[in-house]
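Q: Hi! First time doing this. I have a protein sequence and I read that you can turn it into a structure. Is that right? Here it is:
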Amino acid sequence: MRAFTDKVTNFIDRHRLLSPGDTVVVGCSGGADSVALLCVLHALGYRCVAAHCNYHLRGEESNRDMRHVEALAGRLGVDLCVRDFDVDARRASTGESLEMACRELRYAWFEELADRERAAAVAVAHHREDQAETFFLNLLRGTGLRGLGGMAPRRGRVVRPLLDCTRAEIESYIHALGESWVDDSTNAGCDFARNRLRHRLLPLLDELRPGAVEYVVAAMERLREAGSFVADAARAAVERHTAPDGSTDLRALAREPHAAYVLYEYLRGEGYRRPQTDDMLRAAAGGGAAEFRGGSGTHRRAVDHGMLRPATADTSAMQGDAAIDIDIARGVVSPVRIVVSRHPVTDFRPERDPSVMYLDASALDGSPCWQLRHRRRGDRMRPFGMKGTRLVSDIYAQARLSEADKRAAWLLTRDGEIIWAPGLRASAHFAVGPGTRQYLRLQIIKQ
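A: Yes, that's right. Below is the predicted 3D structure, encoded as structure tokens:
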């Protein structure tokens, strides 16, 4: 039992998923994985709010699962929230698959619950075998390096503390606690692709090569590293042909090796698909003019006379979900300029300048996803020097920002966690402290 809690603790610390005393919304279906997750996080001292979704898809069995979670929460003394969902109504309006409809309903409610409870994170119970299954599912969908790298320990507010644990370790932990779990009868069949992988492919692979899951997961870790390297190389190639105003000479870029893939890799974080980036290169080669929208339309790029430029943003883009991938280690030129330098901690002399912030250089470890974006509804950050979290909207209000300034203000995020509201507040995450050896100095330059 101690070995399991130590393993989870080390994983949480290594990936900086949670801080001591955090409130955590814990998705709990009643299955072994989620029971272990709730039990171990509660044992580690986090304030847990168990969240159970009843989709009413399996008749009395669905209600049995709910009662099991209710009893478990009662024994542990943790708060429990239950939500009933009408999945058929959702599918009728969206056309989604059963799995996708359940997933969208579940995560949307988890986020609402996290806002209400002022939770630092939403914890879900994916483990190592889930990671291996995800590899094959994504492979069959024709995914790229990022998809083959599988699930990240953190994505936004969602954390996966059990991602380094095996199913056998999870079950042993539950038995040692004297607890139990319930099995979803649909998991025993092969109606879903993930179940077929679990019951047919993975056992076959294990026959061919004992310990196959471990080899697959190790390969995924190397693929994540390769994906990070490719992203850095693509960014460097594009930036060689990018002017300070953010315009890129696509004709010059086209002479680079693998230019089409490089441009796609550079722009995929804005939601552009490969056919669109290929069209950008064709438009540049032909000397034509065209405008392209990425993702849900919040990113807009224009090609004119061979140059790719950011198009004028809609007001909706300023308010919404625009998120731009950046390489913080190299500094940022667009959409705002941030100068970044690295120093030994012996040189640390903090300045009282709202345009400057400092980070422990370990923030760069592990190939995290750094982005710049505008605020979203319910955004929270953990300000340096303060207890708990605060709504970004409250920080903006205290600074007396106008509505236009609120829409235009940028936020710096690391794997979805808000690290800096430039000019206003720095996060407590990765603060320079006694264990710091090197630090980063970030300064936003007004243009």
